[in-house]
Here is the input.
Amino acid sequence: MKATGFIGTLVLLALVVTDARSANDVNTSVEIDWSKVRPIEEFDHYWARLPPELQALRRTRLVNRPVTNGFAAFPGQFPYQVVLLPEFLVGTGLCGAVVLTNVYILTAAHCVVQGVGVIATGGTAIMGAYDRSIPEPDQQRIRFSGSGITVHPQYTALTLRNDIATVLLNAPMSYTVRVQPIRLPTLSDTRTFTGMLGTVSGFGRTSDSSLLPSNFVRYASNPIISNSECLTYWTPIYLGAENICMSGASARSPCSGDSGGPLTVNSALGPLQVGLISFGDTAGCTSGIPSVHARITYFLQWILDNSDY
Here is the structure.
């Protein structure tokens, strides 16, 4: 049965970099008040763009947003995973992101845009985190500015079409065992990746009863399905050629706090990013509805044009 209405509520920068960078830009021990950080899907502006009948789902659905049936990662298992903390006038959000290069990260546009066209004022990106709640020695916490955020020019908040953005950090990160860039497909790669095992990772919620995102990196895997199969669940209003879907079988899915994180497949050279977590079903992450992601091969030229990848 095809899902109805808007079903996209996942439970789910250019600055000159110099050697004389500020300690405020790179600080592995900076304290973050996590009690004031909320998944981006909990902000009023995320829901205000939706029709009233779907806004009514907010209180009944949002509190039950687990990272469902996933597994705890081991330290360094996902060295390209980023904790993204975008700052808005109304508060600080929590999203995922991916290391592209030592100065650029990739995330979902809805993670860094408040409502229609209001870009985050700045924020912090945390690389190398296993436990995000403490300043681990291997973490690199680097600031970014609003001027370093580049949102796809055709991003549409209502339908989350073209849900992709790059962020230029205020200072470069250092590659370590725990911090490494992701590998993207080549421009000549025409595969759809249908049938391959996809893996999503992030710090989203961990159970139906949990009200807080996970402190630790978690991941879940399911097959990537064709867009034609995905369209049996989603209408073409929300799903197009720029998207790639992961099965929601066995209630495995990304959830609130995971948006902007990676969807990867295994390759001979290691993990290959094929998607960017965008949205899922308002019925909840355990609904079995496929999660929808921005398709990397579709946006690859845009990524190359708006980063130094």
Observations:
- Residues 296-305 form the longest helix (10 residues).
